Amino acid sequence: MSNKTHYSPTDPEARISVKPGKARALNYLCSVAVDTAAGLISHIQADFADRRDSTHVPDLVPRLQTRLVANELTLRDFVADTGYSNGFNYAFLEQRSVTPWIPVFGAYKPAPEGFTYEAEVDAFRCPAGKLLPFRNYATSKDGNWAKNYRAAYQDCQQCPLKMSCTPAAPQQKFVRSAFAAAYRRAWHRQHSRAGQQMRRVRQRTVEPVFGSLLHHYGLRRVGTKGRAAAHKAMLLSAIAYNLKKLLKYQSKPTARVAIALYPMQQGSYSSLFSAWLTTSNSLQVNSLTECLPI
Q1: 145: Cβ–Cβ under 8 A, 6 or more apart, which residues?
Q2: What is the model's pTM?
Q3: Each residue of 110-147: pLDDT tens digit?
């Protein structure tokens, strides 16, 4: 079964989703944004389950930023798993002054093995020392923009490493994503110490929230029909979760010590605070915790 051959007559907006180790079922995709500082849900929305997670970022981030700005907050870092890895998402977030901490997919490499990338000239250098410069843009089979890098014909024909480098083709060439620069920045962030820390932050903040919504707040099975109704159910679950977090929150009162003095008192305390008493005849006491005897 697939969404191209089957649909639900009672809920046409539900989509068949396929995940490893799970049976095919009609589902809605739940996209959740969590504030890593307080563990609160800052955004939630229902999406179609037959689309990739990465396709929902351009719609989710502007709504999230609008809500945060209304509460005088700023979105500076966006932490997500590999399912949100997309060259357009990297460039989109960077353009909005947001640092994307999204790991790139496992097969990605900044440069092919044995080759080095030189950003100054936008070219790859082969093991023999020859350059493969950028030639032109093209569209890939899935409709995405790509960049073509190709070595000179004479360089490859006269190269002693041709049989081990490109034995079948007359010259070496690479096809890279048009967002290759954003991919490289994301790859370096992923392998940095800060990237490892962000991965742990996501695991201890976002994953528990999503698990709680599934197991304790009724999102394992949504008893509604239609995407709009599913969105309302997700909003109610998020509100209940945030309210419970709010009820558990206890402000930490600061310890204060106030000393009450009398202007006519004679002694060491009077001389110690004489400067205060000369400028004001009375002291405003917030919380009285100690009174000195007359």
Answers
A1: 137, 138, 139, 177, 178
A2: 0.75
A3: 888 889 999 889 899 999 899 999 999 888 777 778 89
- pLDDT, tens digit (0-9, with 9 covering 90-100), for 230-284: 999 999 999 999 999 988 877 777 767 677 666 655 555 555 545 544 544 444 4
Name which of 77, 52, 38, 227 is nearest 235 in CA terms.
Answer: 227
